[in-house]
Write a structure and sequence with these properties.
Radius of gyration: 22 Å
Number of strands: 14
Strand content: 15-25%
Number of domains: 2
CATH architecture of the largest domain: 3-Layer(aba) Sandwich
CATH class of the largest domain: Alpha Beta
Structural class: alpha/beta
Strand order of the largest sheet: 4-6-5-11-10-12
Distance between the termini: 37 Å
Mean pLDDT: 84
Largest sheet: 6 strands, mixed
Low-confidence stretches: 1-35, 43-56
Number of helices: 7
Helix content: 25-40%
Shape: elongated
Order of helices and strands: EEEEEHEEEHEEHEHEHEEHH
CATH topology of the largest domain: Alpha/beta knot
Length: 299
């Protein structure tokens, strides 16, 4: 065990494993959050002799899965996460969102957050001391198992297994959104931050990738989706791509819904869907198909 310094309340940290990648678990009494963060979600009222928590910008939502975002653009959140089922779950307190504006931790009169790369080169790099101050504030309010993830094109590719692990085995996540040429490597090593990637392409920042990760994770939390089976019968849930979907009208532009889907024979419908799922996966994603066959051999 070890303890990070500069917390308002000491938090003990211990290493744990989540689907093959290292996470950091913080235990102990929660410290007050600083004024630099903002929280979105339902306020939970609980008996207490110190009710001031409900009067702050960052109320504690009891039992809510928490997404902490360290970013230069806190106004980008919740964005699309505030709409539809994600937005309803946010308002209902099934999850909560906290943002930390990196500019608030900048140094000097101009609140600088970055500097030129050591050794020369194009672009700017986010400073380790600035990031440390923001991370310390975020971790002071972390509870339970909350890994720190850095959205990076060189990170582990996001997949359904990763999201399932975050939804089932953590109390939330702290997401570091990079900009410019990225972050000082020392901050990643110092805090044991894991890098994750949305795909093999480069974006101008990590905010969109962070929203994608949160959406894919939160939708798997209990009570978020209207129909729990939706998360079971979709792409990647069983290692295969999803079968085709159809709805009314039965006839459209000389295209008909496959007759088997209108037959009422649920066994044959299930067989048709499985066959379609296998064919689509084999054709479009041979990597997934090979992994599927390997699992069948070992089962």
């Amino acid at each position: 065990m070890f303890a990070y310094k500069d917390y308002k309340k000491t938090a003990l940290a211990q290493s744990t494993q989540l689907d093959g990648w290292k996470t950091i678990s913080f235990c102990g009494k929660r410290a007050d959050m600083t004024d630099t963060s903002k929280s979105t979600g339902r306020k939970t009222i609980r008996p207490t002799f110190t009710p001031r928590e409900l009067m702050t910008d960052t109320p504690d939502l009891a039992g809510a899965w928490t997404a902490q975002i360290i970013t230069l653009f806190p106004q980008a959140f919740p964005g699309v996460l505030g709409e539809s089922l994600m937005g309803k779950a946010l308002k209902d307190g099934l999850w909560q969102l906290q943002t930390f504006d990196l500019r608030d931790y900048g140094v000097g009169k101009h609140k600088n957050v970055d500097d030129t790369p050591a050794g020369g080169g194009a672009g700017m790099v986010l400073r380790a001391d600035v990031l440390e101050a923001a991370i310390n504030d975020a971790r002071a309010g972390a509870k339970g198992v909350m890994p720190i993830l850095y959205l990076s094109p060189r990170g582990k590719p996001m997949d359904q297994q990763m999201m399932r692990g975050l939804a089932a085995n953590t109390d939330g996540v702290t997401l570091l959104c990079g900009r410019f040429e990225g972050v000082d490597e020392r901050i990643l090593k110092h805090f044991g931050i894991q890098e994750v990637s949305l795909g093999d392409f480069v974006m101008t920042g990590g905010e969109l990738a962070a929203q994608a990760l949160i959406d894919a994770t939160v939708r798997m939390l209990p009570g978020v989706l209207g129909n729990a089976d939706s998360a079971v019968e979709e792409s990647f849930s069983n290692g295969l791509l999803e079968h085709p979907q159809y709805t009314k009208p039965a006839e459209w532009q000389d295209h008909s819904i496959p007759g088997i889907l209108l037959s009422g024979n649920h066994k044959k419908i299930a067989e048709w869907r499985q066959n379609q799922s296998e064919e689509i996966t084999k054709t479009r994603r041979p990597d997934l198909w090979n992994a599927h066959e390997e699992r069948l051999k070992n089962s």
